[in-house]
Design a protein that fits this description.
This protein is mainly alpha-helical. It folds into 2 domains: 59 residues, no CATH class; 189 residues, no CATH class. The strands form 2 sheets. A two-stranded antiparallel ribbon has the order 1-2. Belongs to the sideroflexin family.
Length: 326
């Protein structure tokens, strides 16, 4: 962007067609330091963004100020509604929130009550994150939210307790440390599709390359949701698969056995190191503006394809785009 040129707030600062560009974007927007900004700072950032869109920003406003205001706005306000999000449900809170919960899940896996409690805490946190970052164009009823929450929590507990019971009699302590990861992966496969079930039923809005709405597609929704599920599992995988090996070896050392009270804080800290990099990396695995061939829609959704053709005067584009969500 040239000096003096106005910034297009509808376009990302970084190239979203490359993994590196997406990685830079998510490092920027998921910065956990934005979670401690005051309510006044967030409101001022929103007001500046609104004023800038109208060309009414205060005289002397610099590009650096606009970029920082945009960072606060995009990290704290819902992109569809413009409402301020609950701080604990923001993607920028994934590192501090996730490191605490995951660290304790990895540490307290030896007893059924501990497994039950920390899996419940984790699924409650995930439900809040999923609800906070929901697609406002496909709202869920209170009943649907309750079913999604109970189903995800139940799947996590069944997996955790069942896997733990199975390994307790057949495997050593190292494999038992992987119980939390198995439960988290299973719950993500249930939680996210249920939280976004309306997209699977009604379809997501799809657009041509110029941003014109051309129809809705359930297949596109399924593709986007499957990518989000994979990303969420990938986000947790390194910390929850590498740390068990590290802790298994460390806990055999004499000096570690003398400081058992510090084992949980150490795991929390190490999980935080992993999540600092894995949250933006996992979010950047797939483009936010996802694409799908209309030939795929024609194959699985002939009714949706006909509507696309109708909306495009009989000439459906070969590729359409949609927002896959986070």
């Amino acid at each position: 962007m040239t000096i003096g040129a106005r910034m297009d707030l509808d376009k990302p600062l970084f190239d979203q067609t490359s993994f590196i560009g997406r990685l830079k974007h998510f490092f920027w927007v998921t910065d956990p330091r934005t979670c401690v900004c005051s309510e006044e700072s967030l409101d001022n950032a929103k007001n500046l963004i609104v004023a800038y869109r109208k060309g009414n920003e205060p005289e002397g406003t610099t590009q650096e100020q606009i970029i920082f205001a945009r960072k606060l706005y995009e990290s704290a306000f819902h992109p569809d509604t413009g409402d301020k999000q609950n701080v604990f449900g923001r993607m920028s809170f994934q590192v501090p929130g996730g490191m605490a919960i995951t660290g304790f899940m990895l540490q307290f896996y030896r007893t059924v009550p501990a497994v039950v409690f920390w899996q419940w805490v984790n699924q409650s946190f995930n439900a809040l994150v999923n609800y906070t970052n929901r697609n406002a164009k496909s709202p869920l009823t209170t009943t649907q939210l309750g079913v999604a929450y109970v189903s995800a929590t139940t799947s996590a507990l069944v997996t955790a307790i069942g896997f733990r019971s199975f390994l307790e009699k057949r495997a050593g302590t190292l494999l038992q440390r992987y119980v939390p990861f198995a439960a988290v992966a299973a719950a993500n496969c249930v939680n996210i599709p249920l939280m976004r079930q309306n997209e699977l039923v009604d379809g997501v809005d799809i657009y041509d390359e110029n941003g014109n709405l051309v129809g809705q597609s359930r297949v596109a929704a399924a593709k986007g949701i499957s990518q989000v599920v994979f990303s969420r599992i990938a986000m947790a995988a390194p910390g929850m698969t590498i740390l068990p090996i590290v802790m298994e070896r460390l806990e055999k050392r004499a000096w570690m056995q003398r400081i058992t009270v510090l084992h949980a804080p150490l795991q929390v800290l190490l999980v935080g190191c992993f999540l600092t990099f894995m949250v933006p990396t996992a979010c950047a695995l797939f483009p936010q503006r996802c694409s799908i061939k209309t030939s795929t829609i024609e194959r699985f959704e002939s009714d949706s394809f006909k509507k696309i053709q109708l909306n495009c005067n009989g000439q459906a584009p070969s590729v359409v785009y949609f927002n896959k969500g986070l």
